[in-house]
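Good day; I would like, with your permission, to put a structural problem before you. A protein sequence and the structure tokens that stand for its backbone fold form the material at issue. The record follows directly beneath this note:
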Amino acid sequence: MDDLDRTIHEPARLRILTVLSGVDEADFNFLLNTLGLTKGNLSSHMDRLEKAGFVNVVKSFNGRIPHTDFSITEEGTRALKKYWEELDAIRAMKDMSDS
């Protein structure tokens, strides 16, 4: 079994990807309020996820107000699916050892 993807395994990033996997896109304020992270924390985690190729970031302006939208990439969707499969495999091994 492969090691769990450390980029996804971090709790805040796992929550971000899980939320993004259920929507077409989400803006910064939605994620901020939904996840209860600070602006700096959310920005830092999104930067890491973007560099890993797991999220798309689209920056724009509404008038003079910056607006940022995020969406999960196909690569991010595959990585998240693999992560959950690996967790299921770990659980299955534990269930077998408890028998």
User: Anything to note?
Assistant: The radius of gyration is 16 Å. Residues 74-98 form the longest helix (25 residues). The first strand starts at residue 26 and ends at 27.
